[in-house]
Amino acid sequence: MLGPTVDEQTRCVHYRTPLDVIAIRFACCGRYYPCHLCHEQTADHPSLPWPAGADDERAVLCGVCWTELTVAEYRGSGRCPACAAAFNPRCALHSSIYFG
Question: Do you know which PANTHER family this protein is assigned to (predicted)?
Answer without folding.
Answer: HELPER OF TIM PROTEIN 13, ZINC FINGER PROTEIN
